[in-house]
Write a structure and sequence with these properties.
857 residues, alpha+beta, five-stranded parallel β-sheet, three-stranded antiparallel β-sheet, 23 strands
Length: 857
């Protein structure tokens, strides 16, 4: 048998593994299997498996868990291998076979859109990698998950093995990683327990005709929309691999993708009026931007027939308050809502940062909301090798370097908590991968990470390009790019304050940058005759070579990346002599939250006492000699607690910041916030306050200590269950009154801190009296070998003041017996009956909710 035949047999087996294991794992398998092969023979095998482009252009390749389509330009003829394409989507849009002109316009648009969306945008992060074809989005994209859960399919459950990496979120992708279990039998905690996985972002977009997708800065919102636009365009071009790339999406559904940054729409609404017609014109121009002049019939048919996918990106980049050149956020959202009412069959996905989408916006839009979950370690393990393999494909590193760097980054994410936290954010993980490749080290802090990225960009200015460095262009050979950092910070602050570009970045007029450079060089004591020439040469150099400032029209510029604009704006704020006042002035605008956090991180090493000053001003009840409104003070408390956690309380203490009074005042302030019956803040803000209070040490009696405070009920007669006609289950209907004896119920649920006292004091000793009292319970404990509740080590549920979860009925009953002995004051603690629980929640008056029959808002 020939060597070629042997290679082909092995290649065929490996190709079949790609949809199951992913391209990165298959490459690793080849490395393990063939490490002693001659290089030429191994390269032949890789070409057979991945194609000549190393997997970049092979239909059906699975990268990071999402199979990707053949990544190619179908060309002006709108055909593939001589076969006309776009007919299937054309039939769906027009309700008939499209004529040749309609088909060509459709395929030209889809082709241009796919080519525009195929790259991972890296301008402003690494100009070199952004050049040319850039980094392939198909190769580095990893399926994104939401925070919602759904059961595994029956087939997946049948294959589920305890401890298998195939379903472990530290190894597997979200489409199969088991992240939770349903509760099952209340007494044992087992029984009919069902494994749950995360709902994928693609599944959420498929499930809801309208969807708001929320996420943190850098959490992957825009990348998801770009990937969705790319794959839908490929599917419209009848490229078979696109079906697999949309994992969790109906294989039969084809849609016309229309990608629209909401910042662009807001600018147009300000110029042309806040109406549905303006949005329609913006969508029409979005198609024309890709070279299709006559788009009216295509757009109209897709909207009316419900075959359009409207991809609205970046609501948070629209300002809260209107400006002359841009409409405000509420107005923009109203137009989007009204447009959806006008075209109810068209599908739509809107992205926004989580904190920017408050209750008022939720109510105004009324669409279902899903939130992107941070990366799991399984997603990190899939992204990292894919990223470095892309560098191999681009000729930046060899395969041995890729393997070494990938292993080092994954090891850092798994062993260093702060790096692990940063790696859960896709943008930060990308930056970490880039810095490790460029510098061989990783910063341990988010602001430091951005600082090093900026150092890399500014360092490029000091290198000779076309025979000239920035210093030589200016005429000051002793300068480095870092000398211009204060000017860049000031321009970033100005840009962020004005934010007049289409995507939230601030537009800077060329003349303003030139004037700023002139003033800067005058302050640097350049000779008067040299100032104007140096400013012009510097601006030309930055424009042509830096990748940090990009032309935005003929006479204006924007920062290449919003994140770096935010970072530099934060530096400017916090390096100002009046930094604390600037923070207070900007704290109410969610667009300034990220700059504030990043700026505080920049100054921490050199001026930690500034952080102390900011925290004290936020915690105080008065501002400018007057009491703060309750809503303002409570939000300030939450912000202060978040800043302290972000900057690490223990590190601040090591820096000799007096954190004790700060933490004390925060504890009692947050406790007051949670106990405030006026509830001046919505529940979505009060819940994080409770989490922060748990980390600081909840001072409320009976939350983290014992005995629990009890609420007395005198008892009485009432009818248990729902009123007739208000419950879907007939067995819940009851008309017979029930008499409840007097009882007392704990004011709070049993918390982790309280249950830990039980665990630490022999709570799971089967010979302890609280287990001896019930032979069935003791047998259950011995058979299961339990030493703590389920999810006890799960960080999601581990805060001290969080109600304990994963406790079976036997464990809860044992805790009550232990508590009775511990308190030893004649009170017997037990679990409430169903009737007592309902009576405590509802009282004697029969109603659906504690407040009555009205549905909750």
């Amino acid at each position: 048998m020939s060597d070629d035949h042997d290679i082909e047999l092995l290649a065929e087996k490996l190709r079949r593994l790609i949809p199951v294991e992913g391209a990165a794992r298959v490459r690793a398998t080849i490395t393990d299997l063939c490490n002693r092969w001659p290089a030429a023979r191994r390269e032949r095998l890789e070409r057979r498996v991945f194609g000549d482009a190393g997997g970049d252009k092979i239909g059906g390749d699975k990268v990071g868990g999402d199979k990707v389509a053949r990544d190619k330009n179908v060309g002006r003829a709108a055909s593939s291998h001589g076969v006309a394409i776009g007919v299937n989507l054309g039939r769906i849009i027009f309700g008939r076979d499209p004529d040749e002109d309609e088909r060509r316009r459709l395929t030209h648009y889809l082709d241009a859109l796919a080519n525009a969306m195929r790259r991972l945008p890296l301008r402003g992060i690494d100009t070199g990698l952004d050049d040319g074809q850039g980094m392939s989005l198909a190769q580095v994209y990893v399926m994104l998950a939401t925070k919602s859960q759904q059961p595994l399919s029956p087939d997946e459950r049948a294959r589920l093995e305890e401890g298998s990496r195939e379903y472990d979120p530290e190894w597997a992708l979200p489409d199969r990683a088991v992240i939770a279990m349903t509760t099952g039998d209340a007494r044992t905690g087992e029984g009919n327990r069902r494994p749950l996985r995360a709902l994928l972002a693609t599944e959420a977009a498929q499930r809801h005709t309208r969807l708001v997708l929320l996420g943190d800065p850098g959490g992957g919102k825009s990348t998801f929309l770009r990937h969705l636009a790319w794959t839908l365009a490929l599917r419209g071009l009848d490229q078979t691999g696109a079906n697999a790339a949309l994992f969790g999406w109906d294989a039969e559904q084809r849609l016309l993708p229309l990608f629209l940054p909401l910042r662009r729409l807001a600018g147009r609404l300000a110029r042309e009026g806040a109406s549905e017609q303006t949005l329609l014109a913006a969508l029409r121009d979005a198609i024309r931007d890709y070279g299709v002049a006559q788009a009216d019939d295509l757009l109209a048919e897709a909207l009316v027939r419900g075959t359009a996918a409207l991809l609205y990106d970046g609501l948070d980049e629209v300002p809260v308050t209107a400006r002359p050149a841009v409409a405000d956020r509420a107005t923009t959202l109203r137009v989007v809502h009204d447009f959806g009412e006008r075209y109810p069959r068209a599908r739509a996905v809107l992205t926004c940062r989580t904190r920017a989408f408050g209750n008022k916006l939720r109510a105004a839009l009324g669409w279902p909301v899903e939130t992107l979950a941070p990366f799991t370690l399984g997603q990190v393990r899939h992204f990292v090798p894919s990223w470095y393999n892309e560098l191999v494909a681009k000729g930046q590193i060899d395969r041995e370097q890729a393997a070494r760097l990938g292993n080092e980054l994954v090891a850092a994410a798994t062993t260093t908590p702060k790096l692990g936290d940063m790696a859960r954010n896709p943008l930060l993980l990308t930056m970490m991968a880039l810095l490790l490749y460029k510098r061989g080290t990783l910063p341990r802090d988010r602001p430091r990470l951005y600082e090093e990225i900026l150092d890399l960009l500014l360092g490029q200015w000091d290198k000779l390009k076309e025979g000239q460095s920035l210093a030589e262009a200016i005429g000051r050979p002793d300068w480095t790019g870092d000398r211009l950092r204060p000017l860049l910070d000031r321009l970033s602050y100005q840009a962020h304050a004005e934010a007049a570009s289409e995507d939230g970045r601030g537009r800077l007029a060329r003349r303003d940058i030139r004037d700023a450079l002139i003033d800067f060089f005058k302050e640097a004591d350049l000779p008067e005759l040299e100032v104007w020439g140096a400013a012009g040469r510097c601006l030309d150099y930055i424009e042509q070579r830096s990748g940090l400032l990009l032309p935005d029209g003929d006479e204006s510029y924007v920062f290449a990346h919003l994140t770096l604009q935010e970072h530099c704006a934060g530096r400017h704020m916090l390096l100002d002599r009046d930094a604390a006042s600037l923070v207070l002035r900007r704290r109410g605008d969610d667009r300034w939250r990220e700059p504030i956090f990043l700026g505080l991180g920049v100054v921490q090493k050199t001026n930690p006492y500034l952080i102390e000053s900011v925290l004290r001003k936020l915690i105080e009840r008065d501002e400018d000699g007057r009491p703060k409104p309750a809503e303002r003070w409570q939000r300030d408390l939450i912000l202060a607690a978040e800043i302290g956690a972000d900057r690490d309380w223990s590190y601040l203490r090591e820096q000799r910041v007096d954190i004790k009074p700060l933490q004390r005042d925060l504890r009692y302030g947050l406790a007051e916030l949670l106990e405030d019956r006026r509830q001046v803040l919505p529940a979505g803000e009060r819940v994080p306050a409770g989490f922060l209070l748990g980390d600081l040490g909840d001072p409320r009696p009976g939350v983290c200590d014992l005995p629990p405070p009890m609420v007395e009920f005198s008892g009485g007669s009432f009818v248990i269950g729902a009123p007739r006609g208000q419950h879907e289950y007939d067995d819940e209907i009851n008309d017979q009154p029930l008499t409840i004896a007097p009882f007392a119920l704990a004011r709070y649920p049993v918390t982790n801190a309280q249950y830990k006292l039980f665990v630490d004091n022999g709570g799971y000793d089967p010979d302890a009296p609280w287990w001896q009292a019930d032979p069935d319970a003791r047998t259950w404990l011995r058979n299961n070998g339990r030493t703590q509740p389920g999810y006890w080590d799960n960080a999601r549920f581990a805060r001290p003041n969080h109600p304990v979860v994963g406790v079976a009925w036997y464990e809860a009953t044992a805790f009550c017996r232990w508590l009775t002995q511990q308190v030893n004051d004649g009170v017997v603690y037990r679990l409430p009956s169903e009737a007592e629980w309902e009576y405590a929640a509802r009282g004697a008056v029969r109603r659906t909710f504690p407040w009555g029959a009205a549905e909750p808002d």
